[in-house]
Specification:
The chain has 312 residues and is of the alpha/beta class. It has helices spanning 42-49, 72-77, 94-98, 100-104, 109-122, 127-130, 140-152, 170-187, 198-204, 222-227, 232-238, 242-245, 274-283, 304-311; strands at 2-9, 19-26, 31-35, 57-62, 65-66, 79-83, 158-162, 190-194, 207-212, 215-220, 267-268, 288-292, 298-303. The relative contact order is 0.12.
Length: 312
């Protein structure tokens, strides 16, 4: 568990506080998305968790231990860190990049090699092909996967992710978000992700922390925040389409009816979001969609009215 207890951060000559009397508790195994306007303090907050920034006052505790009393190097080796530009060492192979922290921890060669292969498999990269490559030989999405694998190398309980998908094209970004969300469910980490993208926060976060001017305005599940904004600023920040955004939190399986008598010719997976299904319906002006399992069998029908009812 991570706890920020009345944390304030002030920079010399900075005027107002970068982070102002912040109280935030992050349960173990939870993914929390920090979001807000530029300069709201979200990145500073995350950087105080691994002591890249030091609070002016207040405490940061990890599993009940004040990190101010922990050696910074020891702390950072126990926390995975993923940044927007990845930060791979350009002169090192992918294998050596992933092995950075295990080498610092004194792991032996066989254990390190097993971990490299395991992680490359986990992030969808073939070890036989990728191990000996250099970062410049990879695409942006592949480099981001390697950065994620490197952060997981020593199996840290905590992962910090600073705009991890910000430098990737929109199509790759959506795919990586989906894949990383599945990976995070498998490895069960406590994750803090900084993002400026509300849709990303809704998709990735079990809880969302909305900040403004260094203060925490609302901290809750995506569904609760979209349904009940704390104040006018939060409501404005969420946008006029927040009701539509709520559909991204509901799977088709939760709104479908039994299969229709006749096949419609258009289908969607039961695990797809109602937001995605509605986009398909509106794009082709359809009354509804068949819901098909992975084997192609029809298991339900999703009507336009069912989507609108779920929205209401």
């Amino acid at each position: 568990m991570i706890r920020l207890d009345h944390v304030t951060k002030t920079y010399e000559g900075g005027g107002r506080h970068a982070v102002d009397t912040l109280d935030l508790e992050i349960e173990a195994g939870t993914t929390v998305a920090l979001i807000g306007p530029s300069g709201c303090g979200k990145t500073t907050t995350m950087r105080m968790i691994n002591r890249l920034e030091t609070p002016t006052s207040g405490r940061v505790l990890v599993n009940g231990r004040d990190i101010a009393r922990t050696d910074p190097k020891e702390l950072r080796r126990s926390i995975g860190y993923v940044i927007q530009q990845v930060g791979l060492f350009p002169h090192m192979t992918i294998a050596r990049n992933i092995a950075t922290v295990p080498r610092l921890l004194g792991w032996d060669r066989p254990k390190t090699d097993r971990r490299i292969d395991e992680l490359l498999d986990l992030v969808g990269l073939d070890p036989a092909i990728m191990r000996s490559r250099l970062p410049h030989e990879l695409s942006g999405g592949q480099r981001q996967r390697v950065g994620f694998a490197r952060a997981l190398a020593a199996d840290p309980a905590i992962m910090l992710m600073d705009e991890p998908f910000g430098a990737i094209d929109p199509i790759t970004r959506v795919r990586l978000q989906d894949e990383f969300r599945q990976i995070l469910r498998k490895v069960s980490k406590t994750v803090v992700i900084v993002t400026h993208d509300l849709d990303e926060a809704i998709k990735m976060g079990d809880r969302i922390a909305i900040m403004r001017d260094g203060r925490l305005l609302q901290y809750d599940t995506p569904a609760a925040i979209l349904a009940r904004p704390a104040d006018d600023f939060v409501e404005s920040f969420l946008g006029p389409d927040r009701a539509i955004k709520r559909l991204s939190l509901i799977e088709v399986a939760g709104a479908m009816a039994p299969p229709a008598a006749q096949e419609s010719g258009n289908s969607v997976a039961p695990t797809a979001s109602l937001h995605y299904a509605l986009a398909l319906i509106l794009a082709s002006d359809l009354p509804g969609l068949d819901v098909k399992a992975a084997d192609g069998s029809r298991i339900g029908y999703l009507s336009r009215d069912a989507v609108l009812s779920a929205h209401r």
